[in-house]
Amino acid sequence: MPEANVGIAVTSSLEPELPEGQQRVYRETLELLGTHRVPFAVSGAFAFQHHTGIWRATKDLDLCMTSDAAARALDLLEREGYRCEVCDAVWLAKAHRDGHFVDLITGMSNAALNVTDVWITRATRGAVLGVSTLILSAEELLASKLFVARRERFDGADIAHIVYATRGNLDWTRVLELAGHHWEVLLWSLLLFRYVYPAQSMYVPLLVWAELVNGLMFRLVNRDSAARFRGSLVDEKMFAIDVNEWGLDDLFSEYRACRADKIEWQPRGLDPHKNVA
Questions:
Q1: DSSP β-ladder status, 83-88 and 92-97
Q2: Is this prediction's pTM over 0.85?
Q3: 220-246: b (≥16 Cβ within 10 Å) or e
């Protein structure tokens, strides 16, 4: 029997009622980072609503920034009484206050896509909970969801909604640039959009379809027998057997090991040579 979709929110334009304490922490964080000129752009549920009009309940505030900016933000937030931690130096830190938390995101967990200064300079000005701030552009927001394709979470519908809600008025050159040599994942996502919204397939320009489909056809005809297995970049757990038992490539670990600009930060007074649970 299929599993019940317990806890999966129904999409809606109705704004969820966030507890006042949660809103206060988010506002204070946005104002604090803005006042101290830490470069960041709001992502996650608030950016998704900004570009699509779709609200969803959220347990955190997602902020995209470079690894250097994340270290600066953690220093600042810790001084202001937040409890800060680096959860994964490749892509994620958290700042906790009054039972609520903010995610500082510097890329994707598989290190296939990393936040750069360009992500911030391309961000658009908007309001989040009444605070004027930078919000991730639709192109970077779309790209940030390309690899969220796990068994327990799939953002393909989000990508379809971004294309539909913007009527395809995107910088497609930038989208293709962000996808880079992972263009097949972009094609996969756009095919889902085409399936869901067949009457709006023109929202994706024909030149984009042609580039992606022609690229696929070329590679199908000119098969590379040395091409490496990429399943772990999609989901390292669901494709674990391929790596652990069938001896195929572990690009997930390789990408993460090669991530040069990881988040380098230690809480004040902590001995960096000691491990923290």
A1: antiparallel
A2: yes
A3: eeeeeeeeeebbbbbbbeebeebbeee
- Phi and psi for 105 in degrees, rounded to 5? -110, 125
Note the pLDDT tens digit of each residue in 35-57.
999 999 999 999 999 999 999 88
- The CATH number of whichever domain residue 157 belongs to comes to 3.30.460.40
Taking CA atoms, 227 is separated from 224, 241, 244, in Å, by 5, 19, 19
Q: Measuring CA to CA, which residue among 88, 76, 83, 82 is closest to residue 114?
A: 88
* Count of domains observed in the chain: 1
Cα 52 from chain centre: 16
Average pLDDT score over residue span 191-202? 98
86, 77 Cβ separation under 8 angstroms? no
Q: Is 139 exposed, middle or buried (0-12, 13-18, 19+ CB in 10 A)?
A: buried
